[in-house]
Amino acid sequence: MSSELQRTILLIDDEPLIRRSIAVYLEDNGYLVNQTDNGWKGIELFEQHTPDLVLTDLMMPGMDGIAVLKAIKERNNEVPVLVVSGNGSINYAIEAMRQGAWDYITKPIHDLGQLDTMIEQSLNRAKEMKEDKNRQFEMALHSVELAEQLYRLKQHDPLTGLPQRQQLQNFFYQTVTKTDFSGVIRLLLLDLDNLKLVNKSLGLEYGDMLLKDISGRFKAIMNENLMASRIGGDQFVFLSTSDTDVYTLIKTLQAILEVPVELLGDRFLLTAGMGVADYPQDGESVERLLQNANIALGKAKKMGKNRYCLYQSELGSQANQRLLLEAQLQHAMQREEFHLHYQAKVDALSRDISGMEVLLRWTRKNQITAVGPDMFVPVLEETGLIIDVGSWVLSTACRQYCRWRERGMAPVMLSVNLSAVQFQAGNLPKTVAGILADTGMEPSCLCLELTESMFLQEIEQVDEILMQLAEQGIRLSIDDFGTGYSSLSYLLKMPIHELKIDRSFIRHLPADRHSAAITDSVLTLAQSMGIGVVAEGVEVEEQAAYLTSRGCQELQGFMFSRPVSADEFEAKFLR
Ligand code: C2E
Ligand code: CA
Ligand code: CA
């Protein structure tokens, strides 16, 4: 590739590891990369040689990403600026977008391919904008009159004089932006049942005359709350913004059609199928409403002539399913439908069992298979049920663990997942202390798995809860590590004993360079801080071997054991 054709990217990031890995990736993909670790230098480079695109970190000492963005916008507003945010909150990235950033990506970047796509899209858009500008200039050369004439032609159907699609859009947007908008817009799609037959048997002129007649009638009922338009052969669209019920509109249209059309001595009786979709629940744009009204129309046509149908959204049925799930979960505890599975963790070197993670399962009455927690834990969280269920999980697991200890099991770690909602409930350290006392569980054998989302709450409060838990001798682990937004340096100020590398990074080991780089840096960092690392989702020996060679102490995954019932766990791991 010749250097004139090579596109240049200016990369500004103060973290050398991340900057280098991005630069190497981009260079591998054919870009020329100019890189620097600070904003001042970045702007200097920008002035010296305008790049095709700028990629800047947001959190940097000295001049931060937003200031860089502003300075670049002042110098040249056409170069796309993308930001990399990693400062624990998405708000910063949103602020950057407000200030004119084209797009953002959050650190850690799991998939550099995503970054590549983002860059590619921005470069294409920049190119299009440039072409657009030229086109607009040419357009301006045409006379205003000509443009207006074209516009009118586009707006009205030459045969019937009814508005067309573009007018629908205008009417829709004028309505939704009105200050006294009632909140209702109803789109009715009407399809004449027998026009095709008329066209076929009597000829197109007859058909056209019929259309004109019918359109005249539709025009007559138009008012400021009702627009009629023709969008194709025998299809009409009505937009109604009054809150009279849908059946009134349908009956009005049917009544209009019931009067036969008199043409050259013949009388024609027309009928129509109708489909209705309502803003906003069935769609938030004319396009969407039309699509859904069309689905409804399809159903109406299936029922026969002169039928109508209201769109019933998937969303509606999803909402119903969701309510059903909620209702079932409300009773699941007292019906004893929850139970626990245990998944072993092993020591990476000896491959002996070093601990177990407790995973919640739900088997509904009269059903054999359990539902996975990804399906229902979010609902438990949203309803607050997770507070009681979480306590039940902890006490049941502790009780089971103590029984196994009494029967000679070594004092391995018991890991229990905590939800951010339990964390917010306020009395977590006390609840946990109570459960430890009740069950006789040894605190030093209990590990609570937290997610990074918990650290997005008020900092002091989080700090205090973690301290109170740690003071009881309980170990704390950060689950799904690497998938959240929180900054590493911040996390490491907390009394954390363990990091669990998320299985999305393990999955592509060791072949994927990016996963390997992340895993390596987590391991190096944790080792220097004296924190343990567990890799989850280890499925094949290759992954286990790689992780072990890099100093990862503990492994968990299907390769060693799937999560199993207490009985199976006993049979497998306790002799
Ligand atoms: P998690 O904490 O990340 O749990 C690990 C998940 O990875 C489990 O899914 C486990 O079955 C799965 N897994 C383990 N090894 C492998 C492997 O080698 N390959 C693959 N593909 N998957 C593996 P599960 O049991 O479906 O749990 C899903 C999530 O539900 C958990 O993710 C956790 O966030 C949540 N959860 C489970 N039990 C509880 C609970 O008692 N309380 C709370 N708050 N959340 C829970
Ligand atoms: Ca977990
Ligand atoms: Ca996990």
Protein architecture, described:
By secondary structure, the chain is α/β, with parallel strands linked by helices. The chain has 22 helices and 20 strands. The strands form four sheets. It has an eight-stranded mixed beta barrel, surrounded by five helices. Helix 2 packs parallel to helix 3 and helix 8 (195-202) runs antiparallel to helix 9. The structure holds ligand C2E and calcium ion (CA) (2 copies).
Task: Spell out the key features of this protein.
alpha/beta; single chain; 48% helix; TIM Barrel; Rossmann fold; 575 residues; eight-stranded mixed barrel; five-stranded parallel beta sheet; binds ligand C2E; Alpha-Beta Plaits; binds calcium ion; 3 domains
Quaternary state of the chains: single chain
CATH topology of the largest domain: TIM Barrel
CATH architecture of the largest domain: Alpha-Beta Barrel
The end-to-end span amounts to 65 Å
Helical run tally: 22
Low-confidence stretches: 140-153
Task: Kindly report the spatial arrangement of strands forming the biggest sheet.
Answer: 13-14-15-16-17-18-19-20
CATH class label of the largest domain:
Alpha Beta
> What would you report as the Rg, rounded to the nearest angstrom?
32 Å
Proportion of beta-strand residues: 15-25%
Derived from helix and strand composition plus strand pairing, the structural class reads alpha/beta
The level of helicity is: 40-55%
* DSSP strand count: 20
At the fourth level of CATH, the homologous superfamily of the largest domain is EAL domain
Q: Mean of the pLDDT scores?
A: 87
Bound molecules: ligand C2E, calcium ion
| Biggest beta sheet attributes | 8 strands, mixed, barrel
